[in-house]
Write a structure and sequence with these properties.
The protein is mostly beta strands. It has a single domain, classed as OB fold (Dihydrolipoamide Acetyltransferase, E2P) (Beta Barrel), CATH 2.40.50. 11% of the residues lie in helices and 38% in strands. Strands 1, 2, 3, 4, 5 and 6 form a six-stranded antiparallel β-sheet that branches.
């Protein structure tokens, strides 16, 4: 796992895993990176708490379509109207353009309330 103690952004390394608690609904913007064809790449920015750090909010910028598709599927499967307060386990494999992400929801424990932003 990469050292994530510095910086305001969530960074994933190769073969990495993080627990993210979503504290805000995503905002849509344009990535500083481009698509392979040179066109602008859409990016969604979430404010999150990383792992067990409940004091420092970081930005998780998502431009990978596969990640957003998984988040939408989690919302639909669990009948969620918003993602704020949800805990997600995000695991990576591969590197560079071959990096793949697996996003899974961590259900709240019985009697536990979600973190609201």
């Amino acid at each position: 796992m990469e050292n994530d103690s510095e910086g305001d952004f969530v960074a994933f390394g190769d073969e990495d895993e993080r627990i993210l608690t979503i504290v805000s609904e995503p905002t849509k913007g344009v990535s500083r990176f481009q698509n392979p064809d040179g066109s602008e790449k859409v990016e969604y920015s979430f404010q999150v708490l990383v792992d067990d750090n409940t004091e420092r909010v970081k930005s998780w910028n998502v431009s990978a379509r596969q990640v957003m598709q998984q988040i939408v599927a989690i919302m639909k499967t669990n009948n969620l109207t918003k993602i704020t307060g949800e805990k997600l386990r995000v695991t990576t494999s591969g590197s560079g353009r071959d990096r793949r992400y697996i996003v899974r929801r961590i259900p709240p424990k019985q009697g536990q309330t979600k973190v609201e932003g």
